[in-house]
Amino acid sequence: MTGCRVDRTAFDYQVRLSLSTLDPDEGYRVDAELAIETPFLLRDPGGQWHELDPGTCTRLAPVLDLFGQTISSVEIHGNGALHLTFDNGAELHIGPDHHYESWHLTGTGVDPITVGPGGETDWQPAPQPEPPHID
Length: 135
Fold this sequence. Notes:
By secondary structure, this protein is an all-beta fold. 0% of the residues lie in helices and 44% in strands. The protein is globular.
């Protein structure tokens, strides 16, 4: 997701961010959607943190400022807490929820991830075997 731009924000009982990265020679390298289904935190470029909840209409207005921004870093911690940093200094943090699916990522060019009730650990990459030693 690093390098992806937010091409669209959408709101209903979820907050959805459409993400893409364009390869000039091949078209879309990433065409994905991040859906947020539980309360989350957004730090705006001015440094103010907002506690937001999908389905709360105009209270979600700070998310609109993510439109056109590029993700500069992605971190997933513990049982699926997602932390995104954007090129304008904004930050988005979604923690796992004890009772509900908190977020999921789907689309082309990304590994699909769903963080279900209580969190997940399946998102972690499988351990790679060590190369054989030649003496």
